[in-house]
Amino acid sequence: MTEDSAGRLVVTLDLGGVTDKAGLMDRCVRDLALPDWFGRNWDALADSLADPSVWPEGAADRGLVLVVEGWRAYAEARPDEWAVAEEVFAEATDRGPGLFVTLGPG
């Protein structure tokens, strides 16, 4: 974890090699340190991203920037699923105060 110039915590979600929803959910658990109760579905992901209580320590107070990298292979392999993932990221950004999700290098 690092921080940006505004002091927000920056976490990278590395999707390199991911080509399906199950892989995406596994990476979310790993890279975002999601709790054991995380349901590994789109609704659970949206809820977790929008809930500062499950963000990394300190992020609720400072804000969280989630940089999604290595996403292109997934987007090409499963465009319909990737469209849902993008919607979840956008919705979570709208719902979660202090959350910003951005796409990094594909």
Structure at a glance:
With 106 residues, the protein is α/β, with parallel strands linked by helices. The protein has five helices and four strands; from the N terminus they run ββαααβααβ.
Q: Give the tally of β-strands.
A: 4
Strand order of the largest sheet: 1-2-3-4
CATH superfamily: Barstar-like
Gyration radius over CA: 13 Å
CATH architecture call: 2-Layer Sandwich
Low-pLDDT parts are: none
As for the CATH topology, it is Barnase, Chain D
Strand content: 15-25%
Q: What is the CATH C level class, in words?
A: Alpha Beta
Q: What can be said about the biggest beta sheet?
A: 4 strands, mixed
- Measured as a percent range, the helix fraction is 40-55%
Describe the structure.
The protein is globular, with a radius of gyration of 13 Å. By secondary structure, it is α/β, with parallel strands linked by helices. The chain has a 4-stranded mixed sheet with strand order 1-2-3-4. The chain has one domain: Barnase, Chain D.
